[in-house]
Design goal:
The complex is a heterodimer. Chain A is an all-alpha fold. Chain A is built from seven helices and no strands. Chain A has a domain at 5-101. Chain B is globular and about 45 Å long. Classes of the chains: A mainly alpha, B mainly alpha.
């Protein structure tokens, strides 16, 4: 059986990204949000260095594009920080991670407003389901005090 | 003082901090998604990864000043998992870009990789022994349909 190479890479991305939800939780079980975030961010440095070493890059970009990409990194980093903080403050990985992955809901709404994109039927349905899902995911089980001793 | 368990008291209850922080994450990543949409035509994935890392630098400097940096009950273990999170996240990004450049169609690769929280949920239930309420289980099912629909390109 021949497995196409693109599928292998896609599976690696799927599994690696999936594992990060659990390692994030394991990390905040042991150390603070701040220290977790610091070491998470430090890990991106060797990856950037490898890219710089092996890939020819085009630095001739418009300053606006360059700036927006850096701001994007900072926004993503802030989101990573708040996701570590959500897990640190008692959020379950199995709830927090699927919940935060509903973020394209906001992206689509912003693209609609500022990038003048049009809403597709699938996206519209996705937005409604995302809101329902968020409400249901936020409903924790009854407090354990009601359980039998 | 007796605790008020009436429905109105529960409705008026403060939003738990994990939930507020998760919603803040949705907002921050949502805006990030829009910025990366805006630059995606002008910038290649590797350059994006470099600039992304540059954007992390000021945040690293900020947390370095935090007094909460010290402490924790098992620092070595915590740092190991945090660093592993970054390595897996970053190499995951590269694998995703590679998949797209080596013949993977975005219409398949994007929705497929968007399902990564499914891997998290399965691992969290098995290895972290997390337990969910019934409405959370239903919520998960709906969330994955939503994540799939939202990942489809317009």
């Amino acid at each position: 059986m021949h497995v196409p190479i693109w599928l292998v890479y896609a599976l690696v991305a799927l599994i690696f990204w999936g594992i990060t939800g659990v390692t994030q939780k394991l990390s905040t079980n042991c150390i603070s949000t701040q220290l977790s975030f610091l070491w998470f961010a430090i890990a991106f440095v060797p990856i950037a260095l490898v890219i710089l070493a092996v890939t020819p890059l085009d630095w001739h970009l418009k300053p606006g594009i360059l700036g927006l990409a850096v701001v994007g990194g900072a926004l993503n980093g802030l989101g990573a920080f708040t996701s570590f903080a959500a897990l640190k403050s008692g959020g379950k990985a199995s709830i927090v991670i699927p919940l935060v992955y509903l973020y394209p809901l906001v992206t689509i709404l912003l693209a609609l407003l500022f990038l003048h994109e049009r809403l597709t039927g699938a996206q519209g349905a996705g937005i409604i389901l995302a809101i329902i899902a968020a409400v249901l995911l936020s409903r924790e089980a009854a407090p354990p005090e009601k359980a039998l001793p | 003082m007796a605790t008020d368990h009436s429905p109105s008291a529960i409705r008026g209850k403060k939003v738990p901090s994990w939930l507020a922080l998760s919603l803040l994450t949705i907002l921050l990543w949502g805006v990030w998604g829009a910025t990366s949409k805006a630059v995606s035509n002008d910038i290649d994935a590797y350059m994006n990864q470099i600039l992304f890392t540059l954007g992390l630098m000021p945040l690293m400097l900020l947390v370095l000043r935090s007094r909460r940096l010290l402490g924790g009950n098992n620092r070595k273990r915590g740092i190991f998992y945090a660093f592993l999170t970054g390595i897996l996240g970053g190499t995951g990004n590269i694998a995703f870009f590679k998949s797209l450049t080596l013949g993977g169609q975005a219409s398949i690769v994007v929705p497929m990789t968007a399902m990564s929280p499914l891997v998290t949920v399965l691992m969290a239930l098995v290895f972290l022994r997390e337990r969910l309420s019934t409405s959370q289980k239903i919520g998960l099912g709906i969330a994955f349909v939503a994540i799939y629909l939202l990942s489809l390109e317009g």
